[in-house]
Structure to design on (796 residues):
């Protein structure tokens, strides 16, 4: 069974090629999701690369990615499908005369209706269907990666709408019937855990929790994202961010902030952290006034500590 | 193999992880793809399909460590260094000799002794070569290492399964399970054999057999204790939770009270889940026909854009006033904890506490975690007897400008004002203006209106006076409140 391990190591390597440094847990879940054809529900604090994982996976598999950003009030006409009303309207106008011809010579109302019955329900056929991200992902010929971002922001009803897609990769449209996926897409849902998701949804998904990475992993991530940063500075700044995270902050600095900070330090042509420099750029890392006020008096010891951590 | 997985899932369920059948099937598929060889891989894989929240994840990790660590302790591959069985010392020559003589001497004494030993040796040798010191620490898989030990352990595990050891629940059941397992292992026959050998004067072989028997008993006891550790805690906890929910808080030891907060959070979560769906009631109203027609004149009356009548939902507010004086502070803690845990589904809630003056503590709960906030409240405001007159009057002053027909007021107290001012006028004023005034009384119904209790008078100024002596009663009251407020 060591081939499972090999496959997972390979997955990590291929994700790394896309600039995504995955931990073993992430790769394992992704591997299982591919094998079992299950959706993945990713939870974790903001900015740890939940959305990025979907991007990297799509790039790795070389498949198109469909992204559905959830928000309050999102409904099926924006997520799943809608009818092309204007096209329907146009066709009605254009076909009016055709209709006259067809009905020409019909005697009485009942025979006219009889003739009309012979036509299918053309206005509610797939031709008038406007696919939205969910349906697009199902209809994709080559398979796709479907990212349903921040599912916790959507309403409770929307979750129920998703169930059929997540379990069977099918959707039922009342006017047409059931449409199955041409090629089962890899579905990734992300959540910031602002509310509990329903058990029914969770049951259908694999669950992956991405925490803030360990120093070593974060070091690798910064290296892959901002390779120009000298190694000494990189270590120092990663250590610094790690010790900042141990404080009780309103918003912990995430990986994306670490990367932003590394970029800004690079712009300033600095080779090591100094108190003045950190004080000036702290607003890249921390987003709240209170947080900055809390960290500023500690800067001296924090910088010293990040030096020792080498 | 799957049997072990099922046992593990049982273990998880005991620890409160809601693992469904569908997830069990998933887990089986996961183990089929990943195999049992790599513990880290297995843990990550199983976690993804069995633990579905962040909290569950922690519990899962703990359970995984405990379960598979214990399994490993029983597992032969890890055993060689801890192999302290007496019979491990006789080297192969002796073992071979005794096994052959064992076969001769004890004839049909079946797999219990001689035969089994012989098998175990050859097999153990073969597999040890094949597997080497592979880190195959997962149970059942490993066959390497100490051949005799593994064979014997495997027998015990098999016998334990036969005796349905996994059903063991209480410490007192140990004796009966030991008996059953030993019976399944053919212990009686072995005792007879030993006696027969001794009678025949073959003491050396008898001692040797006796040693094996003792080692086996040791293994059985070890297996039983381990299973108890896995099961026992869970069964006990279920019973304890049940008792805690039904018993009156005043009769509860402080030791048990400390266990309340997690239980309350669990109950509140259940309540919240039950009411969330209804609370997010359809916001979209009916079709606004007039507006739709008017706006679509440009399209020849075809309803191109549709407009809906929106139902405006009036925001209601809940005011909670809790007595934190000595006699009822325990209930106040429970109610406040409940309110905090329900903050997701409840409309905005403001909490007040009193001994004398009513003091708003809503901000404390925002600043600190619930436990800490409660400690602070107790420390700052929790001294002295209750003065209802002062409390209700100051309460009215603070909230009167916010009170309207949608507000709901909950007062928790026993209505024993030590003979002082009752403040009934203030409460009546609140009663006339608010939608609902509830009085939660922790005292049992029978002791209302005895002594200095003024609860009858308060009854006239509240919509409902309810008894909330136990957690279950309180939960039921809040359940009713939530359905009312939706």
């Amino acid at each position: 069974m060591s081939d499972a391990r090999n496959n997972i190591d390979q997955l990590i390597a291929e994700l790394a090629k896309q600039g995504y440094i995955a931990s073993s847990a992430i790769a394992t879940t992704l591997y299982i999701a591919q094998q079992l054809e299950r959706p993945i529900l990713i939870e974790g604090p903001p900015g740890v690369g939940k959305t990025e994982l979907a991007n990297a996976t799509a790039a790795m598999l070389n498949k198109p990615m469909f992204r559905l950003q959830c928000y309050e009030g999102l409904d099926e006409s924006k997520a799943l499908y809608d009818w092309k009303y204007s096209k329907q309207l146009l066709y009605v106008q254009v076909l009016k005369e055709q209709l006259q011809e067809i009905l020409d010579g019909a005697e009485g109302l009942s025979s006219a209706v009889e003739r009309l019955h012979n036509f299918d329900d053309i206005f509610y056929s797939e031709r008038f269907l406007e696919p939205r991200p969910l349906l697009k992902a199902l209809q994709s010929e080559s398979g796709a990666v479907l990212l349903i971002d921040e599912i916790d922001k959507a309403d409770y009803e929307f979750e129920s709408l998703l169930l059929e897609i997540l379990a069977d990769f099918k959707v039922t449209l009342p006017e047409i019937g059931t449409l199955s996926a041409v090629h089962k897409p890899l579905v990734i849902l992300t959540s910031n855990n602002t509310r509990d998701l329903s058990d029914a949804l969770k049951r259908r998904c694999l669950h992956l929790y991405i925490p803030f990475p360990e120093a070593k992993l974060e070091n690798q991530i910064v290296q892959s994202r901002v390779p120009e940063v000298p190694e000494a500075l990189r270590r120092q700044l990663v250590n610094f961010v790690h010790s900042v995270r141990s404080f009780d902050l309103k918003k912990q600095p995430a990986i994306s902030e670490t990367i932003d900070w590394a970029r800004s330090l690079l712009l300033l042509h600095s080779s090591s952290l100094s108190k003045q420099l950190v004080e000036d750029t702290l607003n890249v890392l921390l987003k709240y006034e209170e947080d900055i006020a809390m960290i500023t008096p500690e800067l001296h010891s924090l910088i010293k500590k990040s030096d020792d951590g080498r | 193999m799957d049997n072990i997985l099922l046992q593990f899932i049982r273990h998880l369920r005991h620890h409160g992880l809601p693992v469904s059948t569908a997830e069990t099937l998933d887990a089986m598929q996961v183990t089929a793809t990943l195999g049992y060889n790599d513990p880290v891989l297995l843990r990550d894989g199983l976690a993804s399909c069995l633990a579905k929240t962040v909290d569950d994840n922690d519990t899962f990790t703990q359970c995984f460590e405990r379960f598979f660590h214990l399994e490993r302790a029983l597992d032969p591959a890890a055993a060689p260094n801890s192999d302290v069985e007496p019979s491990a010392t006789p080297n192969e020559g002796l073992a071979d000799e005794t096994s052959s003589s064992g076969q001769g001497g004890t004839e049909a004494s079946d797999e219990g002794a001689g035969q089994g030993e012989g098998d175990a040796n050859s097999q153990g040798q073969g597999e040890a070569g094949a597997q080497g010191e592979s880190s195959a620490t997962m149970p059942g898989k490993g066959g390497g290492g100490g051949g005799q030990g593994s064979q014997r352990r495997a027998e015990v595990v098999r016998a334990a399964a036969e005796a349905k050891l996994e059903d063991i629940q209480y410490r007192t059941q140990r004796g009966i399970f030991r008996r059953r397992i030993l019976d399944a292992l053919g212990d009686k026959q072995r005792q007879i054999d030993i006696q027969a050998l001794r009678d025949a004067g073959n003491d050396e072989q008898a001692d040797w057999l006796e040693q094996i028997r003792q080692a086996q008993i040791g293994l059985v006891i070890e297996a039983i204790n381990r299973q108890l550790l896995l099961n026992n805690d869970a069964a006990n906890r279920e019973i304890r939770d049940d008792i805690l929910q039904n018993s009156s808080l005043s009769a509860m030891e402080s030791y048990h009270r400390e266990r309340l907060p997690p239980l309350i959070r669990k109950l509140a979560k259940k309540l919240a889940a039950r009411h969330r769906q209804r609370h997010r009631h359809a916001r979209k109203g009916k079709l606004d026909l007039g507006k739709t027609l008017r706006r679509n004149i440009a399209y020849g009356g075809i309803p191109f854009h549709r407009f809906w009548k929106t139902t405006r939902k009036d925001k209601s507010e809940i005011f909670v006033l809790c007595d934190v004086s000595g006699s009822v502070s325990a209930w106040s803690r429970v109610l406040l904890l409940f309110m905090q845990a329900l903050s997701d589904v409840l409309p905005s809630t403001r909490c007040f506490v009193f001994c004398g003056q009513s003091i708003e503590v809503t901000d404390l709960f925002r600043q600190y975690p619930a436990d800490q906030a409660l400690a602070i409240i107790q420390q700052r405001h929790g001294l002295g007897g209750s003065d209802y007159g002062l409390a209700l009057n100051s309460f009215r002053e603070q909230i009167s400008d916010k009170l309207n027909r949608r507000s709901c007021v909950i007062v928790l107290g026993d209505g024993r004002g030590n003979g002082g001012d009752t403040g009934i006028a203030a409460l009546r004023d609140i009663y006339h203006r608010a939608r609902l005034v509830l009085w939660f009384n922790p005292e049992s119904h029978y002791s209302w209106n005895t002594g200095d209790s003024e609860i009858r008078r308060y009854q006239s100024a509240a919509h409902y006076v309810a008894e909330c002596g136990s957690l279950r009663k309180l939960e039921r009251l809040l359940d009713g409140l939530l359905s009312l407020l939706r």
Summary: Residues 111 and 117 of chain A are 10 Å apart (CA to CA).
